[in-house]
Each structure stands twice: as C-alpha cells, then as structure tokens.
Design a protein that fits this description.
This protein is mainly alpha-helical and 485 residues long. The protein has 19 helices and no strands. The protein starts with 5 loop residues before the first helix and ends in a 13-residue tail after the last helix. 42% of the residues are buried.
C-alpha cells in the first residue's frame, strides 16, 4: 500500500485517524501496531512475521542490556550511565541482536546479488561448471532496510546510555512498525521519539500542520516526481540518446528521486503530526548545496546522520589522522550505496560520493573553488550529483557508462535515438521539469512554509492536494523509488 493510492487515501487513512481518536489513550499504541501490520502486510502478509521476529529480538535485547523487566504500562526505564562500563552479558546482547538484524538484512537483500556476482565471476573466468545454480530468488521485504536501522538504533542507544529502554512490548512494536515511516523512512532514531512514546500532545495546530505537510508531499509526488520519472525512464531505457536528451533525462531523474523521496518524507512527517508525533526534518534543499559535503548535510538527513553516528564515528571518524579519515569516508559511502541496493551500480555511486568527500576534505576550504560565486558552486555541485545519479538509476554499469558518454558529447549510435526527443519534449513534461526547477531553487521549504498555518497557506495546500488527486486519476505511472530499499 502506498500513500498515493486510492485505497490508502480514501479508505485506510480516514478509518485509521477515526479509530485513533476514538480509542482511549492506553489503547492507541496497540491500535497503531495493528493498523501498521495491516498496512505493511497488504502486499505480502508473510513480511509481518519477519518484522515480528526482528521486533521481538530487539525488544528482549533492550531489556537484557538495561537490566529491566517487561511491563504493561507506558513506562521508560532509567537510562544506563553514559559511557559507563558494560558487562559481558550486556555486550553480548548488543552484538547478538546486531548480528541477527544484519543477517536478516543480508540474506533477504543480498542473497540474490551474491549468487549473481559469483556466477558472473565464474563466467568471466570461463569456469561455467563452478557456478552456483539457483532455481529460486528471495523476495525483498518492503522497508527492511529502514526498520532494521530503526531496531539497531534502539539497542545501540540503550547500550550507550543515550536513551532508556522500553519495558512495554506494544510501545516498542509501535516504534518499529508505525505506518507513516515504516516502508520508506525517514529513519526515526529511538532517542528522538522515546519520550513521545510515553507522552505526546495532540492539538488542532499540530494536526493542521500535519495535513499541510501531507498535502505538499502528495503534490510533490504526483505533480512533479511522476512526470519527471516518465522522462527519466524514457531516456534510461533507450538504447542510445543524444547529448541534450541525456542531460534532460538525468536532470529529470534528479528531480524525480528528490521529489519522490522528499514528498514521501513530507507525507510521513505529516501523518506523524496527525498522530501527535514530531519527526525530524529529512531534507534541507539538497540541490542548493555548494559542495558534495554540503549536499550530504542536506540530503536524506536521517540516513546521513545515522551513518555518521553509528558507523563513521565508531570507525574513528576524523580522529585518527587523514589517511584513516579518508578510509572511513569511503567505507561509509560504499556501505551507504549498498544499503540502497544490491548491485554494483550502487557501489560505484557510493564510491563517487566517497571520492568527492575525500577530495573536498583533502583540499580544505582555502581553494580557488571556495572563491567562486555561490550560484556557480551550486551549479557545479548539481552537475557532479547528476553524474553520480546515472549510476544510481542505471540497471547495469555498461548502461551507466554509455549514458555518461552521451552526457559528455559521445552519444552511442541507435536507430531509436531520433525518436526520443518527440517522446520527452512534450509540453506537459517540459512544464513539469520547469516547475520542479522553480520549486527546487526558488520556493520555500515545506518545513518553513508550514511552521505557521494561515488561511492563504491552508488554501494553497488544499488546492495542490485537490489538483494532485485529480491528476492522480489520470496517471498509471505511480512508483515510490525508495520502496525498493
């Protein structure tokens, strides 16, 4: 079930909100868990069982680490001493639950990739008889990367003393399975919502801001991401394109993935506000960044901060000399690429960003580049990010290299190349690309625009939602990119 489907918009969401507000407070978390399991199991009920195994494992681990017993009330234990000594049992519980979570993620997300990579290597070496033949493929459970990171942040925060453990299993299951952020984020860290699970406020102002967030997120998705996605798919699926068409398709994909994911994040934040939860900001105008380092401070903030706090800093961060810092940066970005998808294209995407982060750190701030005008630095950064997006979107490395060649003025020959301009330079698509550029570089962010809901702003939000719903009835192309992660 996706937020932009008529089942969610006209059936699931109204029923969920109605039941939530008529249910007494002590029963609301149980209701949210049940609703979230229905939402998550809509595509495949077996996915719910897998998430239950992960949820129960991490909940019990939190109790072992904190030395607490289960309870039925909404209560948090006292956090452990920050930086204090931990027993072997506590450390063993942490290591065990992290290994279980990573094993579940590894098996379901990377089993097929591992077999395919091994067979490709054997083919390259001419060792056909040594291949691993498989007659089945594992289906990737929706959102497993997101709820695995949620679970891991919980046990790590409890172990570090950054947050108290949850003693009520229903409260913890609500944190993991909450449907607004379950299948495509943002990644909600436990320390950010721990207190909200025990006590949070509900107000007309918070609900109104949530509705506005949802309206703008839906408009981003339907009015901008979907038409830009059609242009991108046309270019990436073509056997060969000209230079202008290649750039048009790549820029369209840059807009598609941004408005697709930031739109989903806006809707998730809005739904959270309707339920009384305040989630952190996940995008901060990333295409206005003036360096790749700045880009990662603005893009998918919940993931970049998660990787920083739970991977980069434990590896040593920048505290062990420049060489170790560069190794840590590359390691984090490659693993971040693999987190997005099990393919060599994602590895290359991560390596490109890792290389740029290393170059920028090595050069420092006293460079000729830093003296350039801000808009020029923004344009250069956007071009670099677009080249990296080619590898993120392409199905194979040869396809990515061919498209990069076209972008650099070396288009590959194709009998269909002449047909592409007529398919993508449609007035509707051109208008969508222009609108995407205006929203990206001119318009205020949703977070700031909804900070105060006035009558004109409410009218704009409802008008955009109405237009999005009207356009949605005519669209057959309605994917959510981050569902696959």
């Amino acid at each position: 079930m996706v937020f932009s489907s008529h089942i969610f918009l006209f059936y699931f969401l109204p029923v969920a909100l109605l039941l939530y507000y008529v249910t007494p407070r002590p029963g609301r978390h149980l209701l949210l868990v049940l609703l979230s399991y229905v939402f998550y199991g809509w595509a495949n009920p077996l996915f719910v069982l897998l998430m239950l195994v992960s949820t129960l494992t991490d909940y019990l681990s939190g109790l072992v680490i904190s030395g607490q017993r289960p309870c039925f009330g909404s209560d948090l234990s006292v956090p452990l001493e920050h930086g204090g000594r931990r027993s072997r049992v506590q450390t063993g519980a942490l290591i065990t639950t992290i290994c279980i979570n990573l094993a579940l993620l590894g098996v379901f997300k990377y089993f097929n990739f591992g077999i395919e990579s091994y067979n490709w290597i054997m083919d390259s070496l001419g060792l056909d008889d040594a291949q691993l033949r498989t007659w089945y493929r594992l289906t990737l459970p929706l959102g497993i990367s997101f709820y695995t990171f949620h679970a891991m942040s919980y046990v790590i925060d409890v172990y570090r003393g950054d947050a108290p453990a949850i003693r009520n299993f229903i409260d913890y299951a609500c944190y993991v399975a909450m449907f607004p952020q379950l299948v495509a984020g943002p990644i909600i860290r436990f320390q950010d919502v721990a207190r909200q699970l025990v006590h949070r406020t509900h107000s007309p102002e918070k609900f109104a801001r949530g509705v506005a967030f949802f309206c703008f997120g839906m408009a981003k998705k339907v009015l901008l991401a979907n038409p830009c996605g059609k242009v991108a798919d046309t270019v990436f699926d073509a056997e060969g394109v000209g230079t202008v068409e290649a750039w048009t398709g790549v820029v369209a994909y840059a807009f598609q993935i941004y408005f697709d994911f930031s739109g989903y994040s806006d809707m998730a934040i809005g739904l959270g506000l309707m339920l009384g939860f305040v989630f952190a900001k996940n995008f901060d105008s990333p295409y206005r960044a003036q360096s790749v380092t700045d880009f990662w401070r603005r893009w998918h903030i919940s993931l970049s901060t998660w990787l920083r706090d739970y991977l980069y800093l434990p590896l040593g961060g920048n505290r062990k000399g420049p060489v170790r810092t560069y190794v840590n940066l590359m390691t984090v970005m490659v693993l971040g690429g693999l987190w997005h998808g099990a393919a060599w294209t994602f590895v290359v995407w991560g390596m490109l960003h890792g290389a740029m982060l290393i170059i920028e750190r090595a050069l420092g701030k006293r460079t000729f580049y830093e003296q350039l005008p801000g808009p020029l630095k923004t344009a250069i950064t956007f071009v670099i990010v677009c080249f990296a997006w080619v590898f993120f979107r392409a199905e194979t490395l040869p396809q990515a290299m061919a498209l990069c060649g076209s972008m650099l003025g070396f288009p590959s020959g194709s009998t269909t190349a002449d047909l592409i301009p007529g398919m993508i330079y449609h007035p509707y698509y051109l208008a969508a690309l222009a609108a995407a550029g205006i929203v990206t570089w001119v318009c205020p962010q949703t977070w700031e625009f909804t900070s105060r809901i006035t009558l004109p702003r409410a009218a704009i939000a409802m008008g955009l939602l109405s237009l999005a719903l009207l356009v949605l009835t005519t669209q057959s192309f309605n994917p959510f990119i981050y569902f696959m992660f």
